[in-house]
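Exercise 7. Predict the structure of Na(+)/H(+) antiporter NhaA from Bradyrhizobium quebecense.
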Amino acid sequence: MDHRLPAQDLPRAQRLAEQAFATLQRFLHVEAVSGGVLLAAAAAAMIWANSAFADSYHALWHQQFSIGFGGVVSSRSLHFWINEGLMTIFFLVVGMEVRREIHEGALSRFDQAMLPVIAAAGGVIAPALIYIGLNADPVRGQGWAVPTATDIAFAVGALALLGRSIPVNLRVFLLALAIIDDVIAVLIIAFVYSGGLELSGFVVAALGILMVVGLQRIGVGSALAYVPPGALVWTGLLMSGAHPTLAGVVLGLMTPVRPMPLREPPLQMVSRVVAELRDGDAAWKDIHRLRSRRRALHVAHREMLPPVVRVQTALHGWVAFGIMPLFALANAGISLTASGLAAGPQSVMLGVGLALALGKPVGVVGATWLAVKSGRCRLAPGMTWGGVCLIGLLAGIGFTMSIFTAMLAFPDEALLNAAKLGVLGGSLAAALLGLGWGAAYARRQRKGATAHP
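Solution. The predicted structure, encoded as tokens:
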């Protein structure tokens, strides 16, 4: 017996709610919107930190916040839990993006991955050289990696603002470039900015990794079951002196790319359960039978998508519209009146800004040109050198990962604030240059499409 109501018989309030949620879901998947939210959070932080309520801004993030289980309690500042805790989820999504690209995306074949890898390498080397050229002092030189990363949300969001006239292969190239940039940034954090390493912490992290492998081997598909061993990996890396957010990358790379094996395919399971429930009213009155069928439908629904897709999709909205804006709000609040921009900090700010706005496009375009002219690589269909220049400019938007790296590179507050100002200024300049060039490029693409229908 079918207990569902036809769509037209649903209460009006329910139909309106369904339409609103469908619209909201589409809204959440627009990358340009997430970039806008991130920008708004950064602007709010700057305004707050330079207002009459600046003291409350800094006091909020230094507020102690305790998390405990049983007799084990850890009390840290809110700033710590955001930067070291919540950002682990951001890195988890990054790890899953890399895992997907390696499995079936732009990094799945060596010949496809070679060009964005070379371009990303150029986009790391050139900004680092520009920065070091302006900051040869060893203390300031610690920030050489700050301008080397690309912010995926901002860069892809800016490209989305240019409309559908941008070739698909150009979008794929930017996404692959940004992902490889993130991989390089993660490696830099792991090997350059981790403190003195403690072996016992790695033992704890290894135990957590073994627990994850064990759960995968016995066919546990629920994502919640992996939270305790994931927390163990995070704790182990924190104990070791390595940056704990790297736990997110490790777990993301370990996420399976295929659904858990079942005794019958998910669609077949759904069809069988639906057929059994249509047997008669008795099926609906047997509570034990209903629970069994509901469990089967839940498993089938869960395993229709591989875990790497399912978990990333579930976390996307939380990361893009919650964690990243909160990170920006907590870290972009720089006091312009008390930043202490003496000669040293000024050099850091200038080095970071120039490296992002100038070094990134020079490195990306230059490395791509060398790779193509050497005959080792070729541009994908639909890509032109104007499009490569557009990607190079947008790659200079280095907001989230650059600020994160700056906090690891500079314990001195004056240098850290200067680096953040350089990131904000350089990223803004790169975005404006990219959008200006992109608007002209998109017009040429539309004219070309009109001339050659």
